[in-house]
Amino acid sequence: MKQLMQILKKIDGKGYKAYKSVQGHYKFSNFDLYIDYVQGDPFATPSKIRAVVPTRKRALKDEWLASYRRRVATEDVIARKVGTAIAKGNFSIKGSGKSGNIQFDRPGQEVLERSAVQADSNSITVCISVGLPANGRKINGREAEKLFANAIPSILNNSVFSISDKEIENAVQLADQQEAIRAEMRKNDWISFVANGSILPRGSGISNRPLKDAVPFQSPTENEVTIEIPHQTAPIKGMAVEKGITLIVGGGYHGKSTILEAIECGVYSHTKGDGREYVLTDPDAVKIRAEDGRQITGVNISPFINNLPHKQDTSFFSTENASGSTSQAANVMEALEAGATTLLIDEDTSATNFMIRDQRMQQLVHKDKEPITPFIDKIKQLRDQLDVSTLLVMGGSGDYFDVADSVIMMEAYVPYNVTDEAKAIAAANPIDRGAISEEMFGTISERYFQQHSLQTRKGKKSKTQAKGLTKILMGQTDITFAATEQLVDTSQTRMIAEIIQHLDRTNGLGNKTLHELLNTIEQQMDQQGLASFTGFKNQHPGDIARPRRYEIAAVLNRMRTAKVNQKQ
After folding, report:
1. 58, 144, 193, 233: least buried by Cβ within 10 Å?
2. Would you say the pTM of this structure is higher than 0.85?
């Protein structure tokens, strides 16, 4: 620390590039400071530092790190404490540009594996970005001393060193409870569980916090189950959604989409106080919607679309500007290709002609003149042949009563099981839809992405960069994926950008099908960590968080530079 302060005094008033001399490792009284990257000027991307606290200074119990879920919960609760310490800190470090700016990848409502805090049996590593102080383009050494001697130690004192064992214990115990519910879901073939008392609505369209004074969730009696969970004597009760075909029906503004949104977010764990801590979903559930204008490359959409007017091959279909129905068909097939076992669909974001063709329309437009086989005619094949469940919000067509295993009606945000009533209505009002005659669902694509799909060059440099939550700049090409609704954190997008850059750098596409490629990526994240994709394994790796395989696939599938081959 003294050495760092001497360097800062020595370079005070010099040109900004003299800051490069502070890069390195410094020992403070209760942590080690690593200055990994120094920005080129005060207006550039802030410098990257790591504070490494040995566990002899802040002990971590072995059981907190005993499993993946427990370790992530431990890192997450510490990261929340660091984020609060930075937000509440009044450090008053002055200067030009980004001088004194302290940035940290603070977690949102979801509990994700992220690089911001990394814990193991030896140390706790906190990754922070800081704007090194300057006056104009000259170094402000005194303000830099305040940054390193006062601000950084203060942040650690109010987070890593002040967090209580009880706070960490509570986070770990919640992770244990969530894992116990997931185990019960697997055992009983449930695709989702929504606990009684959960708060499902969010504060607003721009807030992911729970809505105040919302109606707490209460399961219908017919769907209510009881689960014994660790760390509390009373069991937890709630609604179990079984494998198969489940409809959520009801009038407008009664909570249909709200419950579906909570279920689609249940693929992630949520932090205490979120309201959805005990809303958990099949981790291989994928939200499907129409996506007009998207790129499609070499996807077999023939199970849904065939016999196009110009004889275009739909078993290896490509377009730069997909229609609503075509895009939704591709989204289903791509999800299945990546390994999805549950499809989540809301009629509000679906193409009507993809979801249903009623009896009257079938009589007017004959089958031989209609290339689209609607989803209703494939949904049972998905269930029976592929073991793929569907959870569907449907308020506009009772035709789905014939194929549903369960029907839940939302009324003033309260769910009721109306399966028997819906089946009685279907029996009393039979509809001869003239369903498809094909017995098999069809073939799911197995595609290889060619290596030159990854065009990351921009001039002489190779660069792939996240631009917000739903856009990545790859070389000179934008990849946009605004309709990928289960991507929840910009740090996940940054991680996907790093994965693309890594695949380009290592010629990583190889001769793997997309499914095999996703397996390889997940295996590397499991065994080598997120930082292994960045090229900065022993440095600040950037602000990244773990994405699911389905969102990685969604980005690759939307590359306008994609070139694919189909497995023969």
Report:
1. 233
2. yes
